[in-house]
Automatic annotation (TrEMBL):
Pfam families on file: ABC_tran
Keyword Chloroplast appears in the UniProt entry: no
Gene3D superfamilies: P-loop containing nucleotide triphosphate hydrolases
Segments forming domain ABC transporter: 32-265
Annotated GO MF terms: ATP binding; ATP hydrolysis activity
Keywords in alphabetical order: ATP-binding, Nucleotide-binding, Transport
Protein name (record): ABC-2 type transport system ATP-binding protein
Length: 346
């Protein structure tokens, strides 16, 4: 059932959010035992450094960054699990820290490495437990149970003990449980972690469907950028605890616009050598190369290819989003981003 999306109140707002952690430092030397015990050194770590973000209802946003960038910390703050050290946060107009119970009835959360399912009971028992504890009305529960059973193909596992499920089955069951109370916003932290190709495809198709058909707002984190590109329309990249990019995947490619791929159909299975291209892979007589137009203009590359007797056909393709983001991570590793990049500024 399509949810009526009201745009007056955004799905979430982060306004200049900071999050600090304290970390005790110890030398590990036996001679420093007393010093470590009575006068340990403390280091202040900054997980989030002035993050500001606004997501409208019905959006599908990928939230990404290298390890330690602050992705999971942000999700936990939005869910009320953690409180920010400074700044303002609201989800559906509510303060996650102060209005956590009211908020939990309107949002859904799935952490890829954790489960809400009862380990030694059938999946349906966990679902019925949630119905009772959360006070989900019969009409809502029955409608959503039927919907998730169909959309996630759960009919064969509803009466299976959770401990006997494969990882892909368990993730589908967790997603189904998350949606039983009809959440308006869902947060997913690494939902495709460890899933095989088929399970990933099912997961991605399902998330896109509930976003399109129900108007559910989806915020998803993942290290798999190809998965994120297949799911979301917008990507927010964190670096050093700051928002370094906010826009579409297509706009992200323009940030590293010099990277590209060329697919060459040759007369032979042996890939021809080209000075301006870096060979990547072959499939039969189709060979793929990488190029950097900042080093060699594309016109010059095409001229070289057209002059080769080995080349039968040339196709310019997009660089994989993984490569684009990896290049950005490398450029951000040594220094913080100079400015907040939005699609509007590109």
């Amino acid at each position: 059932m399509k949810r009526t999306v009201q745009t007056d109140t955004p799905a979430l707002v982060l306004d200049n959010i900071y999050k600090y952690y304290s970390q005790w430092q110890r030398t590990g030397k036996l001679s420093d035992t007393l010093k470590n015990l009575f006068k340990p050194q403390k280091r202040k770590l900054t997980a989030l450094n002035g993050v500001s973000l606004r997501v409208e209802k019905g959006d599908f946003v990928a939230y990404a960054g290298a390890n330690g960038a602050g992705k999971s910390t942000t999700i936990k703050i939005l869910c009320g699990i953690l409180q920010p050290s400074d700044g303002e946060v609201s989800v559906l107009g509510l303060n996650p820290a102060k209005d956590r119970i009211a908020l939990m009835r309107r949002i859904g959360i799935v952490f890829g490495q954790r489960t809400e399912l009862w380990w030694d009971h059938p999946v349906i028992t966990s679902y019925e437990w949630k119905k009772v504890v959360w006070g989900i009305p019969d009409e809502v529960y029955n409608r959503n149970l039927q919907a998730v059973t169909e959309l996630l193909d759960l009919s064969d596992i509803l009466h299976t003990f959770s401990r006997e499920l494969s990882l892909g089955q368990r993730m589908r069951a967790d997603l189904g449980m998350m949606l039983l109370h009809d959440p308006e916003v869902v947060f997913l932290d690494e939902p495709t972690l460890g899933l095989d190709v088929l399970a990933k495809q099912q997961m991605i198709a399902f998330l896109r469907r509930i976003n399109a058909e129900r108007g559910t707002t989806v915020i998803v984190t993942s290290h798999d950028m190809d998965d994120l590109e297949a799911m979301a329309r917008r990507i927010v990249l964190l670096s050093h605890g700051k928002v370094a990019f906010d826009g579409s995947f297509e706009a992200l490619r323009t940030v590293q616009g010099s990277l590209g791929r060329i697919r060459v159909t040759a007369r032979s299975d042996m890939p021809p050598n080209f000075l301006s291209l870096a060979f990547l892979s072959s499939q039969g007589n189709v060979h793929e190369y990488a190029y950097d137009s900042d080093v060699t203009p594309i016109q010059e590359i095409l001229t070289q290819l057209s002059g080769s007797e080995e080349v039968q056909n040339v196709e310019i393709i997009k660089a994989p989003i993984e490569d684009v983001i990896a290049s950005l991570y490398k450029s951000w590793k040594q220094q913080e981003p100079a400015q907040f990049i939005t699609q509007k500024s590109l």
